[in-house]
Amino acid sequence: MRLILMGPPGAGKGTQGSVISERYGIPAISTGDIFRANVASGTALGIQAQQHIDAGEYVPDDVTNAMVRDRLTQPDCRPGFLLDGFPRTVEQVKFLDSLLDEQQVRLDGVMVLTVNAEELVGRLLLRATQQGRADDTEPVIRKRQRLYDDQTAPLIEEYAARDLVLTVNGMGATDHVSERIDAALARLRR
Ligand code: AMP
Description:
single chain; about 190 residues; alpha/beta; 5 strands; about 60% helix; binds adenosine monophosphate
């Protein structure tokens, strides 16, 4: 199964991505996590990415795409994968299309988690106290939300035109959201 998990910052992509990964035995690939790991260990990639991440901006497409190519061509991605936080721009969609064409595989679905705006800010401010992410301050959160609305949300239309979108209500308890995701994936696999 090859899936994209989309939704605004705070929608629960990381949490639900881990659940899906375990249940379906596919790696969850979070571009944000890979960037943060590189920042933490001070690699060249981390140094390139850090200023963008801290400012709540997108890391440039060429840098992000090269990283995704490296990751998706690893053997563990052969049976499938779940992408969390990628693609986020039109350029990244084009890049992913060409990479999957090269590999002669197709996407099975694009799952969109929906959560209302007030709930999102509340969740991110809570996460800030738990994880201490530099980009979880209120002004940076707002900037990331704007970027999502401007650059990433429009991608849903593109995937909807390909009949790939599954919309899942991301409000409420983690377990309830996981159940809704399972139901949506069951429809996909039928
Ligand atoms: P996330 O953990 O998905 O919220 O990502 C954290 C930050 O990493 C984002 O605010 C961006 O700065 C960067 N990032 C993650 N994924 C991407 C992507 N696909 N394109 C550009 N920047 C990204």
